[in-house]
Write a structure and sequence with these properties.
Number of strands: 0
Strand content: under 5%
Helix content: over 70%
Number of helices: 12
Largest sheet: none
Structural class: mainly alpha
Radius of gyration: 19 Å
Number of domains: 1
């Protein structure tokens, strides 16, 4: 199947999914809380897709995705505060700037840390994530509106299904095209054997930087949407555990699979929030017992993830011949 033909299939499936969700939202059966969870799941898919590019396709073990998620969120919230933006159309350039800001910072820190590999790279990105968390905790000393440890309040609610769904569609389509391009092939070669890739003339440093920068861009976009969904930001929203959430989604979905990331993002958010709804208040804390059990059972059943190195033909992003 050609890229154009599969893109057409993705468009048709996405349009049907959007109409179903839109109808569900307007039916009256979807509470405001349920709508918020569905939108949050779509946002998480974007951030996890960025980590899948970095780790799943290029093999760079990063634990700092939440930091770029937070950079995008705070950038977006601050810009809407400064320019008094309260609607979707003028928000789009701000959302793009949020992604670019995260990408720029990712590009700059990528110069020193991408020389590292495996566990050393994970520790370096984890350290950067902690640095960002501490900076956000004290950000009110630099700009009072950022709130620091008090949190950023007064953010307008702009994120909606009509905004999030097209953004997810566009970013999935762009990511899929990049993965199936020569750059995506270079990334996968580097993941398999960086030394051999370098011997065959691939500029591994440049390719790793490109993948890392693009993954950070996606995290920044997701952060901007998150900020205007919940209308309140706190540094604790972007700590180490949030990076673990994204990592779990990539691994559960299957490394190197866009379809797997989409499926795992929906399953992971649905499972966590479903337990919050199902369990009585007194047993709510026990969900942290069920979650590890769920992951253990899932890894025994699918040790390489739900869609490891596979793509769904239904979504029009099946592996290119």
């Amino acid at each position: 199947m050609t890229l154009l033909g599969s893109a057409r299939r993705l468009l048709i499936v996405s349009a049907m999914a959007y109409l179903l969700l839109k109808g569900f939202f307007l039916s009256g059966f979807a509470t405001e809380y349920l709508q918020q969870i569905i939108l949050y799941a779509l946002i998480v898919i974007i951030a996890s897709l960025g980590l899948n590019v970095i780790y799943g396709y290029t093999g760079q073990f990063s634990l700092g995705q939440a930091a770029f998620y937070g950079i995008g969120a705070y950038t977006s919230a601050y810009m809407t505060h400064v320019f008094s933006v309260g609607s979707a159309l003028p928000f789009l350039p701000i959302l793009l700037v949020s992604g670019i800001m995260s990408a720029l910072i990712g590009y700059l820190i990528g110069f020193p840390i991408l020389r590292l590999r495996d566990d050393f790279l994970a520790i370096a990105t984890l350290g950067f994530g902690i640095f960002v968390r501490v900076f956000l905790d004290n950000s009110d000393r630099l700009i009072d509106a950022l709130g620091g440890a008090r949190g950023f309040v007064g953010i307008p609610r702009i994120t909606s299904l009509d905004l999030v769904f097209p953004v997810v569609f566009i970013l999935v389509l762009v990511t899929r095209n990049v993965i199936f391009s020569k750059y995506g092939l270079f990334w996968q070669c580097i993941k398999d054997d960086e030394l051999a890739s370098s011997a065959f003339g691939i500029n591994t440093g440049r390719m790793k930087s490109m993948a890392f920068t693009y993954g950070c861009f996606l995290a920044g976009i997701a952060g901007g949407l998150y900020a205007h969904l919940y209308t309140f930001l706190h540094p604790s929203n972007f700590d180490f555990l949030k990076s673990i959430d994204f990592l779990i989604i990539v691994i559960v979905g299957g490394m190197g699979s866009i379809t797997g990331t989409i499926m795992a993002g929906l399953v992971w958010v649905g499972f966590i929030e479903g337990l919050r709804i199902v369990l009585p208040t007194g047993l709510l804390e026990y969900r942290w017992v069920f979650i590890p059990l769920f992951l253990i059972i899932l890894m025994f059943w699918k040790p390489y993830g739900l869609m490891a190195n596979k793509e769904s033909k239904l979504l029009g992003i099946d592996k290119a011949p």
